[in-house]
Design a protein that fits this description.
Blueprint lengths: L3 E10 L19 E9 L4 E8 L4 H10 L1 H4 L4 H6 L1 H8 L3 H5 L5 H22 L3 H6 L3 H5 L13 H11 L3 H11 L1 E5 L9 H13 L4 E5 L4 H15 L4 E5 L6 H11 L4 E5 L7 H11 L5 E4 L6 H9 L5 E2 L9 H14 L12 H16 L8 E3 L13 E2 L2 E2 L13 H7 L5 H4 L1
Parallel strand pairs: 4-10, 5-6, 6-7, 7-8, 8-9
Antiparallel strand pairs: 1-2, 2-3, 4-12, 11-12
Length: 432
């Protein structure tokens, strides 16, 4: 079994702000970026991972990745494979690093990049894509991936085992179903705030023509602008398709309630990130106010750790749980949140987009279906058609569904030419 000999970190950025791709009410000029890590081993293999940022600040996450180097270099993969949860706890428990950001912020984003690379390497060693690898775990193996510290008032290891054992007999049938039809997706491609009305109309028509049944739109900058844009989109997509709206944290709680009462005429399925991602009681208040209107609350893109999700579930603050493959501390912590969501009966609708998030999080949605929830009802994984051409194993979407990844690993590796062109600040994409 290989030993990790070297940790490589690269600051990779894509100038998406030039065309306003990814623009929303909180983030008007994002440059989609990857704090990219490669774990090299003594047998010539490598695991690739990353965390997503939107430009400035990517260098901070890269520095935080390097700060974990002493915890990773020299470790044997057999130790990680034997006890993934214990290894995750080790990486997350350096007392000096915890002091500046326990379970959140740049330190946690750095942890995610390393953990994602570990799982990519694990999948390559096993010769399987990560979704298929984890789908083959016994309930006991799955539970060994989880650090249950701070969770046992809501979910114990014994409860997790019971939940997983209920799904065990029918897992093989769900794997077959996934391989046959894929995993349901929704699109955000038409909804960025920086787009003109003509572009919104054209992209909405294209979404309908491509078969999308769930479409998400950014809101929150200006109410009259939102009313006009949503009217255009409903005119193009009709009323039989589900429309979701995303405020990206810009509102206070009373403002969120008042604004959404105005937008309710367009029958949104959910409002995403209506206020600060840390405000659990605020989300709960919004959820109670909007429930009579048939509007659910969704959040999780900026949910920094499993403890915050635990409290969102306990407070009945969300109707949809949006995990993120990089904001949480990589695969292990996402598995913990999948279990919590199943315990509280909240469907998981993973957040994606960015650089590689679609590639990564498709695995997590599929793991949820096969091992944890056993259901695709009210579950859709976000898809944004940006930057996939830069990946060795890009995600594939057909008929509004993610097709299963087939190559070993976590679909995290970026093409060498793309790395060279977009490394900041000296890559060709930035020099010119």
């Amino acid at each position: 079994m290989p030993r990790i000999t070297h940790l490589e970190v690269r600051d990779i950025r894509f100038p998406t702000s030039r065309d306003k791709d990814g623009s929303d009410a909180m983030n008007p000029d994002p440059d989609y970026s990857s704090a990219y890590v490669v774990l090299h081993t003594d047998d010539g293999r490598a695991g690739h991972g990353s965390s997503f940022t939107i430009g400035r600040g990517n260098e901070v996450v890269c520095a935080a990745i390097r700060a974990h180097e002493h915890l990773v270099v020299g470790c044997r993969m057999e130790d990680f494979i034997a006890d993934p949860g214990g290894f995750w706890h080790l990486l997350n428990n350096d007392s000096q690093l915890r002091w500046i950001g326990p379970d959140k912020g740049a330190v946690h984003l750095a942890l995610a990049a390393i953990v994602n690379a570990l799982w990519d390497l694990y999948g390559r060693i096993a010769g399987q894509p990560v979704w298929r690898l984890v789908s083959g775990f016994t309930p006991e193996q799955f539970v060994r991936c989880i650090d249950f510290r701070y969770l046992t008032d809501a979910l114990t290891p014994e409860e997790a085992l019971e939940l997983l054992r209920r799904q065990e007999p029918s897992k093989a049938a769900r794997v077959t179903e996934l391989e046959r039809v894929g995993y349901p997706a929704y699109t955000t491609s038409a909804g960025w705030l920086g787009y003109s009305d003509d572009k919104i109309r054209r992209l909405s028509r294209e979404a309908v023509a491509e078969g999308w049944g769930h479409i998400k739109v950014k809101v929150g900058r200006d109410l009259q602008d939102d009313l006009r844009r949503l009217a255009i989109i409903r005119e193009e997509i009709g009323w039989e398709r589900r429309l979701m709206v995303d405020a990206n944290q810009v509102w206070d709680v009373p403002q969120a309630i008042a604004w959404m009462k105005e937008l309710a005429r367009f029958k949104p399925w959910w409002i995403e990130e209506p206020t600060s991602p840390d405000d659990i009681l605020g989300h709960a208040a919004i959820a109670r106010a909007l429930e009579p209107l048939g509007i659910g609350v969704a959040t999780g893109e900026h949910g920094m750790n499993r403890i915050l999700f635990k409290q969102l579930f306990q407070a009945r603050a969300i109707s949809f749980c949006q995990i993120d493959s990089c904001r949480l501390g990589g695969v292990n912590e996402n598995l913990a949140v999948l279990l919590l969501a199943a315990k509280f009966g909240v469907p998981v609708c993973p957040h994606a987009g960015g650089v590689g998030l679609c590639e990564f999080v498709q695995h997590l949605g599929m793991i949820d279906f096969v091992c944890v929830s056993g259901s695709m009802d009210n579950r859709v994984c976000e898809f944004v058609d940006h930057l996939h051409e830069h990946f060795v194993d890009p995600c594939r979407v057909r008929n509004a569904r993610y097709l299963v990844p087939e190559r070993p690993g976590y679909s995290t590796e970026i093409l060498p030419a793309s790395l060279g062109a977009h490394e900041y600040p000296h890559g060709s994409a930035w020099v010119r």
